[in-house]
Amino acid sequence: MLISVQTEDFDVTEVSRQLCKNRQDIGAITTFSGQVRDKSPDRNLLALELEHYPGMTEKSLTAIAEQAQSRWDIDDLAVIHRVGRLAPGENIVLVVVISAHRKDAFAACEFLMDYLKTQAPFWKKEITKNGEHWVEFKDSDRQASERWD
Amino acid sequence: MAKLLYFASLREALDKDSEQLSLPADITTVAQLKDFLATRGAQWQAAFTEDAVLLVSVNQQMAQADSAISDADEIAFFPPVTGG
Q: Is B67 in CB contact (< 8 Å) with chain A?
């Protein structure tokens, strides 16, 4: 299991390769990567500032990953979340799940993303040309997370 | 001494990211601590009143209003999370 909270960028292909290294039993690799999106129609976003709770963040990601491992037949996984100042188009988050079969890999990948969005202590602030504001929690994220309960 | 932490918009509203606090003997739950912090002034009252949506963790585990706290705990308050 690879869990990382980091300022540096990640390479999706490299992380997948690392997880599969020296294994011949993996038939499925699912990856999700999220990047900084400018939602404003007039392209106002300069950057996102990602704050987190050092210590608790790693613990909560590990707990979520362990839940995924107990719920689905998966062989290994990686969760990487970036923090600090990120420009539009930059990577924010990566989830990779490897498994013998795709069904479990897909489900676990989706579960990991849904859960980390509602349970891991990260906060986003948008830095725009017109000022700064904290991103509001979305109820659709809560609902997406609750469907796994 | 309990260690208190504040994150994101709450940290900015209070202009404080952490503090050491000797918990008064009659404060044994998260709810009681919130009531106590709310008495510190207008910003604190606004942040810790009942209708403010605030999450809390005790020793880096998510907790609830009735969760027990002690003087050796690390207690963090923060707004709903928005990672991913």
A: no
Distance from CA of A24 to the nearest CA of B (A): 31
Q: Is A15 helix (H, G, I), strand (E, B) or coil?
A: helix
The residues that bridge with B62 in the sheet, in sequence order, are B57
Q: For strands B55-58 and B74-78, give the pairing.
A: antiparallel
Q: Does B8 touch chain A (CB under 8 A)?
A: yes
From the list B68, B74, B60, the residue with the least C-alpha distance to A121 is B60
Contact B79 A118 (CB under 8 A): no
Q: Do B84 and A50 touch (CB under 8 A)?
A: no
Which residues of chain B have a pLDDT value below 70?
Answer: none
| Residue of chain B with shortest Cα separation from A138 | B82
Q: Does residue B84 belong to any structural domain of this protein?
A: no
Token digits for A63? Answer: 């707990």
The contacts of residue A149 (CB under 8 Å, 6+ apart) are none
Segment A129-140, tens digit of pLDDT = 999 999 999 889
- Assign a CATH topology to domain A2-146: Aldehyde Oxidoreductase; domain 3 (3.90.1170)
Q: Does B9 touch chain A (CB under 8 A)?
A: yes
